[in-house]
Amino acid sequence: MDINTLKDAVARVRVIPVLVLDDISLARPLAEALVRGGLNVLEITLRTPNALRIMSEMAKVEGAIVGSGTVRGFDHMQQSVDAGCQFMVSPGAPRELLASAQNIDIPLLPGVSSPTEAMGAAEMGYSFLKFFPAQAMGGTAVLKSFASPFPDLVFCPTGGVSPANAPNYLGLCNVICVGGSWVTPTELVEKKDFAAIEGLARQATLLGR
Ligand code: 3PG
């Protein structure tokens, strides 16, 4: 998947569930519930021992577009490709990481939270960026301020995004989509309440309309 295909996919759903999961047996039913609910672009964070196996399982779910999150090095990138991921997300944008990603076949969304970081990423050819941690770094006010100096950049704010503030982000001209963990609350995942998660996904699809 190239960056433009990814942009089209996220522009359709407007919300990317960000998952922290370690129980492999939950991977497929959880991804299936999210896809049924209308959210088919999923970010699986590399924060648990089984994250790569979970990505592989989720990548087998029909219609799911699986990406790796919390990517911090070249090993993570290669492992993400091997696990069947179609994109990668990083919390930051160190120059070495951005350079490494250019040797990988799937696109990377680098994380930025300041004008200098945005300019560094843009200079290296990245124009679709994660704004992280969105709420803590100033939220919609910052993204509005980015629009004029950086008309060529679009963002996926993540970190502290909720159903209450998502519409404000999604209403901005430089926001394609938001990411967040609220669609898959730990208690519902642990209870295997996939019907409730499907319902949260369905509600999330309405936030950008
Ligand atoms: C993260 O990287 O943890 C994501 O940004 C999710 O943040 P959230 O839990 O605040 O939605």
What does this structure look like?
It is a single chain. It is globular and about 45 Å long. The chain has 10 helices and 9 strands. Helix 6 (115-123) links the parallel strand 6 and strand 7. It is α/β, with parallel strands linked by helices. It has one domain: Aldolase class I (TIM Barrel), CATH 3.20.20. Helix content is 41%, strand content 16%. A 6-stranded parallel β-sheet has the order 5-4-3-2-1-9, with helices on both faces. A 3-stranded parallel β-sheet has the order 6-7-8. The longest helix has 12 residues, at 194-205. 44% of the residues are buried. Helix 2 crosses helix 3 and helix 2 (27-36) runs parallel beside helix 10 (194-205). The structure holds 3-phosphoglyceric acid. Residues 18, 132, 158-161, 179-182 line the site of 3-phosphoglyceric acid.
